[in-house]
Amino acid sequence: MKKRFFSRTVIMVAAAMGVGLVSCHKDNNVVIPVTLDTEAPLSVSATSVSMLSAKNSTATVTVIASGGWTLTGCPDWINASASSGNGTTPITLTALSENWSDENRSANLVFNGSTSSATVTVSQLPSLPPGLRVETLNMTLMSDGFACDLQFGPETKGYREAFFTESSVQTMTDRDIYNKLMEQTEYSGRLDYTFLDGWADPGTRLVYCVAAYGNESNEDGSHKYGPITIERITTRARTIYDDMYLTASYNSSRWTVIASRQGSYGQRCDEYYYVAAEDDLAEEFNMYSMRYTYALMAHLVFKPEITADRNWNYCNGPQTMNWTRGGNKFFCTTWGIDRDTRQFSAELSTPVYLDLSSPSAPETKRVKSNPADWNKPHQRPTPAEIMKMRNSLKVFRVSK
What we know:
There is one protein chain. With about 400 residues, this protein is an alpha+beta fold. It has four domains: about 1-35, no CATH class; about 45-125, Sandwich (Immunoglobulin-like), CATH 2.60.40.10; about 135-235, Immunoglobulin-like (Sandwich), CATH 2.60.40; about 245-390, Immunoglobulin-like (Sandwich), CATH 2.60.40. About 15% of the residues lie in helices and about 40% in strands. It is built from six helices and 26 strands. The protein has helices spanning about 1-15, 175-180, 265, 280-290, 295-310, 385-390; strands at about 20-25, 30-35, 45, 50, 60-65, 70, 80, 85, 90-95, 105-110, 115-125, 135-140, 145-150, 160-165, 185-190, 195, 205-215, 225, 230-235, 245-250, 255-260, 270-280, 315, 320-325, 330-340, 350-355. β1 (about 20-25) and β2 form a beta hairpin.
């Protein structure tokens, strides 16, 4: 009896200690191994959890384990209440920052046991509404300004935009710039393009910011904006002279324009495009050339025309151009493409405008306006005026 009790006791103690025992059946002389499991597979209470968009938002997951475990794959925006442990343990996951975007962000956290592992996907909801992104597309940069095509998301109802100097935002984060933008004027509707109206010194480093709102509102009733688009730009530096310097003369049947390339930048332009107009259209373009920056004129009028038809150019450094004269007013300007970069040159040529309708026609001059206050909303041409600029352009062919 004592011997049997001792054997049973050994087996019970060994089982408690997780020791594998081997039992022998003496009658058949066969050895039968008996293995006792020491650790159950590791698992988690949920394979995915989600937290709100705000900083310090939390989510909880429980590690179910019979032994030790460690955590890997935790990103810098999540804090876990424990990165290792032993046995079943609840883990609190905390967002260390706001998800300031219009998309979920997520990470895969892996809990590793000695013989198995389990993965939990942690997501943080976005704080900004979707469908409100703004893209900056085709741009025109010149020494006197900036123009850019814009594309708004499908849910856009309105927007804010602003220009800042690079020096004024050097110590600001993108969120700081966003907050500064929210102090600017709010516009309703969308727009096809934006521009810097006024004059910026050549080589000025600017920061253009734009964000859009849709149907969602904040708790105070204000519009809820989507992600901010930040575009850092530098207006092109002017050379000693414009790329092309134009003078003009006329006789009873011809307008004659003499073009000379000036400065190092102009010398690199092998391909030039000329725009000429007569009478009312000439007067209109002359008004545009004095009223708006060259950047805006080129972007709204000349770029689309050149894109549509690249055949109305005159290459390889023209000297004299002749047009058949049909009226008493004449306007002409030109724009070149750099032979190395294949980009348009820094400047439109100084426009030529001749008015023979009166004996003492006034001389045309570009008048430099006061420096623009980039933090204030700027004036825009009306939609009707833009359409007129775009649709009424006529190109005079150069007589070879």
